[in-house]
Amino acid sequence: MDMKNTPGQHLAVGAFALALVFGMNFFLEVPWSTALGRTSFVLLFLVLIIGPITRFSKPTESGSPFLLPWSWRGELGIWFTLTGLAHFIVILLDTPLNSLIKIGGSGFSLANLLGLVALFWGVILMITSFNKVIKFLGIMSWRWLHSLTYVIFYLISAHYMYFQYFSTYGKVGPDWFGYVATTMTLLVIILQFTAFIFSVKKYRLEQGAKMD
């Protein structure tokens, strides 16, 4: 597990996040709010693929932390929340909350509500991503809480899928990021399933070795 957040890794992840935001805005002409939201999704995707991938090889604590994939989850998760929060704030500057989410409203309101719920839980996970807080909560409680990361991912996936596939907001049909994000979502599901099968198979082999 990743209990440390180092300044060097925060600087690297922050620079990467800002490069994505500015790159989408200046080179692809994506609005600031959208660029921030898409960057947030990419960072969360990176957080979620690290876990399944490291199940296929036994983690080691030797070497530089910059070379250990699992040591980046804390920084990636914190910057995911920061960019997601910035995405929400930029939208609020132009559109009041009661226009984004209306009781009895359309799918537009529901999609925004899902995004807001995901952001709320993201802030909770960010607050609990620091060493002192982890020690206060206890490892088991911390692990249970951070297992909600997958719930956040699927809430955000539903959020972007509405705008990309079921809305006429902007233009009809998904743009390039819609296809990229869908591929990323499917990849997370495949990795989760594959890691689960791998873990079950490994457990059965260990049980068989004990019986022998």
Walkthrough of the structure:
- The protein has 212 residues and is mainly alpha-helical.
- The chain has one domain (7-209).
- Helices cover 75% and strands 0% of the residues.
- It has helices at residues 7-27, 32-55, 73-94, 97-100, 107-127, 131-137, 139-146, 149-165, 176-211.
- Helix 5 runs antiparallel to helix 8.
- The longest helix is centred in the C-terminal third of the chain and has 36 residues, at 176-211.
- The chain starts with 6 loop residues before the first helix and ends with a helix.
- It comes from Candidatus Buchananbacteria bacterium CG10_big_fil_rev_8_21_14_0_10_33_19.
- InterPro entries: Fe3_Rdtase_TM_dom (IPR013130).
- It is found in: Membrane.
- Its main location: membrane.
Q: Which features would summarize this protein structure in a list?
A:
globular; 212 residues; mainly alpha
Summarize the structure.
This protein is mostly helical and 212 residues long.
